[in-house]
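Sat 14:20. Reprocessing the chain from the morning session after the first attempt stalled halfway. Input below, unchanged.
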Amino acid sequence: MKSIQSKFILLTVIAIILSVSIIGGFAVVNFTREAEYSSTAIMNLTCQEQMWAMNKQLASVSESVDIMGDYVKHRLFSVEKMKNDPDYRESFEEQMALIFEDLALSTPPCVSFYIRYDSALLGGQESEVLRIRKDEFSPFEDSKLEDVNQYSAKDPGNVEWWYNPIETGTGTWIEPYYDKGMDMYLISYVRPLYEGDQFLGIAGMDIDFSKMIQTISDIKVYETGYAYLTDTEGTVIYHPVLKEGTPITDNAMELQSAISFFEKSNSEGTTFTYSFNGVKKQMAFATMNNGMRIVIAAPDSEIKGSVINITRQTVLSGLLIIAIFSFVIMLVCNRIVKPLRKLVNAAEQIIGGNFEVEFPPETKDEVGTLTVSMKKMVGHLKRYINELNGLAFRDSLTGVKNKTAYDSAIADLDRELEEQNLEFGLVICDTNNLKHINDTYGHEQGNLYLQKACRLICEIYKNSPVYRIGGDEFAVILKGKDYQNRYQLMEAFDEEAEAQNRRAQNPWDEIHVARGMVFYEPGRDVDAEAVFRRADAKMYLTKQKMKMGADFKEISAAE
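Finished this time. Tokens:
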């Protein structure tokens, strides 16, 4: 039969192992969840930030082109005059070019802009404006558009900027292309010009797409993560490894699912796991205004690297704790006697939250000392817990709930407001003249003054929680019956305060409370704090009026 000492050592070691395993396991699981959430947030936030920055550039270009398109339609006096009057046509072209240039100069990404009128409309005559620059700091210079008559809608060649908007009938982004004349990689926004049903021509702007690519190439996540661009079909526009025009599915069959992942409206803000060249990765994406997608990809091992480190540290820490405790137990276990079982039982009950435990008789040895210590510990714990429970949510002077309880209630309201609209109101009360009472009659009378005001607030709003949120400030959250009768209760408060003031023998027996009451308005208040600010502001106005009113004439005279 094994000795109690050996059994105790074995039991204790097993208990320590289980405790460390459970606590460590929960820590690792929770940390893993937090790490996954953080990694998703980091990758998607990076995507969103870049998408917003690029969308801002794209929007500035499309807005400028649309403004110019509308301006051309409204300023064109006559299509016939444009066709038959060369002087008018030349003047109109120059005027539109100057206006368009002003718009282009206020659109930093723009490196060229153009207007081309339909030659069929002008009886075969050519009418166009093209001005280009090397970068956003250079002046615009006149240039010549490529002859669209050499191409057709079926074979647009290098003039998709002409046939694409004609085909769509609306403003459109042209996919990135290389322009030999400008020696630039461009992306264009073009819109058709119409006068009623009459097609007039097109207007457009170009952006230096290489700068956008540089921005994408500069994005780094974790150690080796990178960003790239695809079109709506998942074809590579820019990738640090793959060539332009390569379908992303060619190098990772799992990415076949990524196409449907892209197309899901709710997939932005999440991550997708796949393998690329034998490396497990995660990716997130954001869709730009022109349909291109910014994709962020990073190795799964780097994303979860912190989880692996934490797991390793948890295991090592657990083994160290087990070793230390086992050594200590072996040193002291031979000094433990039979009453230990009762102490173990008592300790287990205390861990479970039961402090009404039975201890073994006190002896004049180590177990006796431990027994005395545990009794004192339980007594201290009982006292501390009772004190904390009393202090945590209760105001010691007035007996109502305190600021901590109020903050908790406001947080609960905000959580409820996220799920549904609520009917509730907020009354902010401030006891006027407290400083005068304290300074003139002492803080004891000031406390009585506060308590009397608090009692009336509680009596009037007996169906609602009352909180002391400051030295002389109280808050009432109105719901249910008190919310329905909120105006009657405000009148009842005034009537009762006046009645008590008439009976008061001393200044500290009077009640002078400034109040501000508002109720939650869904279209106006974003959260409960917004309701508080309105109520507090209303209370402050009431306080100022009361200070100037008859309620304080007697007090003012005493001062």
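The longest strand covers residues 184-195.
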